[in-house]
Amino acid sequence: MTQANTTSVDAHGIKRIYLFKRYERFWHWSQAALIITMMFTGFEVHGSYTVLGFEPAVRLHTLAAWMLLTLWAFTIFWQFTTGEWQQYLPTLKKVDAMVRYYAWGIFVNAPHPYKKTAERKHNPLQRLAYLALLAMVSPLIWGSGLLYLFRNFWPGMGLGWLPLEWVAWAHTAGAFMMLVFFIVHVYLTTTGHTPTAHIKSMITGWEEVHDDEPGAKH
């Protein structure tokens, strides 16, 4: 079996679809490692605990931020050259079904209301969550973070009036929003056929789909 094949069925009748390409998996895990590093060092800089020390935490936090921006630059280029950006287009179709599933259905073994395909990897609720992340959380974190990093240039930019504390608190607020998103994201990875099914698919690229699973449609 090669990665050119997009579907396969094993001896147990379980269909597998090839969802996540090599770069997609590299990007996901690299981004996760950098975000964890930034949260760990960022909360230390904030004074929540002391592990590395203030100055080493600042240096590592700044390095991870630049590495993540570089990764995003390559990823944006990859998204647009491959057409994968269309996976994130928001839609309200079946959002109510997804809300009911995550709020109640998942706890009573109800069938999943959305079926993944290579063309539609993210359900409507996920798409809205990514939109909120890109439209609200990311601008807050990166805007405040870059302002803080280049605070020595504020007078020349006409921002000498801006209190540094405001920028710091805005950055911290964005960090807590990202932490909530991260926790929810990790929790949802455990909601597959097995607690590790979604994690495995992001490692191998292949997602298991049970053909006898009732009710799941686009």
Q: Which geometry do the CA atoms define?
A: elongated
Distance between the termini: 27 Å
- How many structural domains in the coordinates? 1
Could you name the CATH class? Mainly Alpha
Give a quick account of the main beta sheet: strands, pairing sense, barrel closure.
3 strands, antiparallel
The chain-level mean pLDDT equals: 88
Specify the structural class: mainly alpha
Assembly state of the chains shown: single chain
Your description of this structure?
The protein has 218 residues and is mainly alpha-helical. Helix content is 56%, strand content 6%. It is built from 6 helices and 3 strands; from the N terminus they run ββααααααβ. It has a 3-stranded antiparallel sheet. Strand 1 (7-9) and strand 2 (14-18) form a beta hairpin. Helix 1 (22-46) runs antiparallel to helix 2 (54-82) and helix 4 (124-149) runs antiparallel to helix 5 (164-188). The two termini are 27 Å apart. Residues 211-218 have low confidence and may be disordered.
Give a quick rundown of the structure:
By secondary structure, this protein is mainly α. It is 56% helix and 6% strand.
Helix-strand blueprint:
Blueprint: E1 7-9, E2 14-18, H1 22-46, H2 54-82, H3 95-103, H4 124-149, H5 164-188, H6 197-204, E3 206-210
